[in-house]
Write a structure and sequence with these properties.
CATH topology of the largest domain: Rossmann fold
Helix content: 40-55%
Largest sheet: 5 strands, parallel
Oligomer: single chain
Keywords: DNA-binding, Phosphoprotein
Strand order of the largest sheet: 2-1-3-4-5
InterPro entries: CheY-like_superfamily, EvgA-like, NreC/VraR/RcsB-like_REC, Sig_transdc_resp-reg_C-effctor, Sig_transdc_resp-reg_receiver, Tscrpt_reg_LuxR_C, WH-like_DNA-bd_sf
Number of domains: 2
CATH class of the largest domain: Alpha Beta
GO molecular function: DNA binding
Protein name: Two component transcriptional regulator, LuxR family
Length: about 220
């Protein structure tokens, strides 16, 4: 089984790797510390059989990375592993296609059992966590579908747009010409069904997550 652990905290990536290695789950594990690395791994080696994904990844806006992966690989399960465990966040993650939601403070037995259940085909799991009655809006689901249609490079352009970077700044960061960024931006606008940078930011804003209430939730 191929598994990608996508989290920007190296200690937690290592902890999840040790958890899998110490269990009876036979996994070939790769690591990604940002969305760009996740895209690169998927492009190079194909979609993993299991993705363990942190919501607060560099290059992601709320549920955007989850929506992109699920939209492109609906048969490959994603388990969100996050310290941000508010009930509405858990519900929205499940609505956006996550097979399960685990708190980073879960015990190893709980995590291992949840991973086994997901690999056995179970979905909608959130052991020990509350889940809100109101979930993702239809508008948010539409935006997630649109983001799933973006190429990895277009996704990066959209993410940098949300961060407030200008076309020339995005071009510099990606090492391409500004004309290339303008072409990508045109496609991003078309797929999102918007006509301006402001409208694009507002659309993607439907996927954002409310700030954590405590410092521990921001890990």
């Amino acid at each position: 089984m191929k598994c990608i652990i996508a989290d920007d905290h190296p200690l937690f990536r290592d902890a999840l790797s040790m958890l899998l290695s110490g269990s009876d789950i036979d996994a070939d594990i790769s690591h990604a510390e940002n969305v760009a690395e996740l895209h690169d791994l998927v492009e190079k080696d194909g979609a993993p059989d299991l993705l363990l994904l942190d919501l607060h990844m560099p290059g992601a806006s709320g549920f955007s990375a989850l929506g992109w992966f699920v939209g492109n690989y609906p048969d490959k399960p994603v388990i969100i592993v996050s310290a941000h465990v508010q009930a509405d966040t858990v519900r929205r993650a499940i609505d956006h296609g996550a097979a399960a939601f685990l708190s980073k403070s879960s015990g190893t037995d709980v995590m291992t059992a949840c991973i086994r259940d997901v690999l056995a085909g179970n979905r909608g799991l959130h052991p020990g966590l509350d889940i809100s009655e109101s979930g993702a809006s239809l508008k948010a689901l539409d935006v997630a579908d649109a983001l799933a249609s973006l190429t990895p490079q277009q996704f990066r352009v959209a993410s940098m747009l949300v961060e407030g970077l200008l076309n020339k700044q995005i071009a510099y960061e990606l090492g391409v010409k500004e004309a290339t960024i303008k072409a990508h931006m045109t496609e991003v606008f078309r797929k999102l069904g918007v006509q301006s940078r402001t409208q694009a930011v507002l659309a993607i804003g439907n996927l954002t997550i409310a700030p954590a209430e405590t410092a521990g939730e921001s890990l």
